[in-house]
Amino acid sequence: MNIFRLAGDMTHLASVLVLLLKIHTIKSCAGISLKTQELYALVFATRYLDIFTNYISFYNTIMKLIFLGSSFSIVWYIKRHKIVHRSYDKDQDTFRHWFIVLPCLVLALLINERFTFKEVMWTFSLYLEAVAILPQLVLLQRTRNIDNLTGQYVFLLGAYRALYILNWIYRYFTEDHYIHWITWIAGLVQTLLYADFFYYYFQSWKNNAKLELPA
Amino acid sequence: EKDQAPKDEL
């Protein structure tokens, strides 16, 4: 494992911890898109189908369990926790799951490395992860006061993707393998979706102003 | 001889 991959994983982990901190400690999910969280739960459920059959490392298994457990518990918190649920911006979080899930499923059935159930599900999870942030970005744009934790959560998620690209570039030059093109392209699309957010995030940071995305 | 990269990422 290289430094970019480790930094990417740690940033991903930090994003989850920031979100759990907001939900568990402040008991608020204001500004957080349940749609995006449900899509992430689906991403991990379909990607880690081989978690118990294909052992890679202790680190790998633990991280998979953390991402599975945290994504499903975040969804549970927003939907079922009495106090947390009250802060959910239901009327603003209007993105339709099916507009995202269906095209990803069709694309995974058409473009994959091998036409087997596990392989198609793995490919589907990559396509879905690439666009799962969209409901969250739409919600951010509609939110007048984006609180610090929500801004940091999205920033950390974007940073995680950017670090993964550096990791792939590093692996390309240091390892002798064929490239998983699907992973690269889906990952690149995913990172580009954050470009606009990054721009306004750094602007607000530079000017010491509150983060706000223009409609 | 190149082979497929292992799926060892998260």
Automatic annotation (TrEMBL), chain A:
Annotated membrane topology: Multi-pass membrane protein
Keywords assigned by UniProt, alphabetized: Endoplasmic reticulum, ER-Golgi transport, Membrane, Protein transport, Receptor, Transmembrane, Transmembrane helix, Transport
Transmembrane segments: 55-78, 98-115, 121-141, 153-173, 179-202
GO cellular component assignments: endoplasmic reticulum membrane
PROSITE patterns: ER_LUMEN_RECEPTOR_1, ER_LUMEN_RECEPTOR_2
GO molecular function, one term: ER retention sequence binding
Gene Ontology biological process terms from the UniProt entry: protein retention in ER lumen; protein transport; vesicle-mediated transport
Main location: endoplasmic reticulum
Protein localization: Endoplasmic reticulum membrane
InterPro entries in alphabetical order: ER_ret_rcpt
Entry keyword Transmembrane helix: yes
Protein family: Belongs to the ERD2 family.
Protein's recorded name: ER lumen protein-retaining receptor
Source organism of the structure: Citrus unshiu (Satsuma mandarin)
